[in-house]
């Protein structure tokens, strides 16, 4: 069925909808009319979604993530194509979407349906369920992009430990599990000491309290790590850089601690350390596809199940704020239907 045929039978579906209000915004689980879809050449029946840090910001209004109203939040989905006029996709195909402005400038994923551009989609890898894909989500996909960047830099398990900051969160949990399966020694940093056993069960061999990484950064600290995956930013990133060994690299993929970088050029010009930027939103399809294929093979499914909990679409609004408070362990998947 082509998009034009689908439009002849307009239907309503359930969605989380953010509306502009006189003071701030309103957020409700309500019905949304397909007639109000934005441009796109593929309509997807969404089966599973998830909640990321950015979704928490959008739903709570704590940051100006949403750029148009009304907006359906949600930057991730996995589902089945219902209608398509894109040459690469046909009804029945199983697909994944991450980013591309969904939930910000384009109607997003926390809904029973979504209409998007076909070039934004990645085919669901063989052997990976739609639920598993969203248990991984943008957080896990970003973690894999960071691991791939460190490997392209040339880091191997023999080079030494890899630091993972924000380790109990979504990106951190998946990063710890992937690195451990790849044979790396993992040092996991967290401010939640009660999560030490959880992180060790994912493969971390050393637990570092985040206080060690939040003090005023020195230009250079003792060389401790061959590399790092940082989802925190700011002072934590500056300290991670100052502790990285000669020729090492830090993959930066988050800013929960701030957008500033209060550090020094010393790690770069005296130790040859590289800072690798990780962008998951506009990442090319070729790299996305490689990352998802790697996730299907390099992530222990038992560990994925261990870091995941499931909620329904009707629970999303009440849960969104907890991710901003740092009270979410691992990943949350949202069962849409």
Quick tags:
337 residues, alpha/beta, Quinone Oxidoreductase, Chain A, domain 1, Rossmann fold, 2 domains, six-stranded parallel sheet, 10 helices, 15 strands, 29% helix, globular, disordered N terminus
Commentary on this structure:
With 337 residues, the protein is of the alpha/beta class. It folds into two domains: 3-124 and 307-335, Alpha-Beta Complex (Quinone Oxidoreductase, Chain A, domain 1); 138-277, NAD(P)-binding Rossmann-like Domain (Rossmann fold). 29% of the residues lie in helices and 26% in strands. It is built from ten helices and 15 strands. It has helices at residues 3-7, 53-60, 130-153, 170-181, 196-202, 234-242, 266-270, 285-298, 301-306, 316-324; strands at 12-20, 25-33, 42-50, 76-84, 94-98, 113-116, 122-123, 162-164, 186-190, 206-209, 225-230, 244-252, 274-277, 308-312, 331-335. The strands form three sheets. Strands 3, 4, 5, 6, 7, 14 and 15 form a seven-stranded mixed beta sheet that branches. Strand 1 (12-20) and strand 2 (25-33) form a beta hairpin. The radius of gyration is 20 Å and the shape is globular.
- Estimate percent helicity: 25-40%
> What's the structural domain tally?
2
How is the biggest beta sheet arranged? 7 strands, mixed
CATH architectural type of the largest domain: Alpha-Beta Complex
């Amino acid at each position: 069925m082509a998009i034009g045929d689908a439009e002849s039978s307009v239907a309503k579906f359930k969605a989380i909808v953010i509306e502009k209000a006189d003071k701030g915004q309103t957020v409700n689980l309500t019905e949304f009319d397909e007639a109000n879809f934005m441009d796109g050449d593929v309509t997807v029946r969404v089966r599973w979604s998830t909640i990321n840090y950015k979704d928490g910001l959008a739903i709570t209004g704590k940051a100006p993530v949403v750029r148009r109203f009304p907006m359906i939040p949600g930057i991730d989905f996995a589902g089945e194509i219902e209608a398509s006029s894109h040459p690469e996709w046909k009804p029945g195909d199983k697909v994944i979407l991450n980013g591309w402005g969904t939930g910000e400038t384009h109607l997003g994923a926390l809904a029973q349906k979504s209409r998007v551009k076909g070039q934004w989609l990645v085919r669901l890898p063989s052997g990976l369920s739609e639920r598993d894909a969203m248990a991984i989500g943008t957080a896990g996909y970003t973690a894999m992009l960071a691991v791939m960047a460190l490997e392209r830099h040339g880091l191997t398990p023999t080079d030494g430990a890899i630091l993972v900051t924000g380790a109990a969160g979504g990106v951190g949990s998946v990063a710890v599990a992937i690195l451990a399966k790849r044979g790396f020694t993992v040092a996991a940093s967290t401010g939640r000491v009660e999560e030490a056993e959880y992180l060790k069960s994912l493969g971390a061999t050393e637990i570092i309290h985040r206080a060690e990484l939040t003090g005023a950064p020195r230009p250079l600290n003792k060389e401790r790590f061959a590399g790092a995956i940082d989802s925190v930013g700011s002072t934590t990133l500056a300290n991670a850089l100052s502790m990285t060994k000669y020729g090492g690299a830090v993959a930066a993929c988050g800013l929960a601690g701030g957008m500033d970088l209060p550090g020094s050029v010393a790690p770069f010009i005296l130790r040859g350390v590289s800072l690798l930027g990780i962008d998951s939103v506009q990442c090319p399809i070729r790299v996305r596809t490689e990352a998802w294929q790697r996730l299907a093979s390099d992530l222990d499914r038992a560990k994925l199940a261990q870091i995941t909990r499931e909620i329904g679409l009707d629970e999303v609004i009440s849960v969104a704020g907890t991710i901003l408070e740092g009270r979410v362990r691992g990943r949350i998947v949202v069962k849409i239907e």
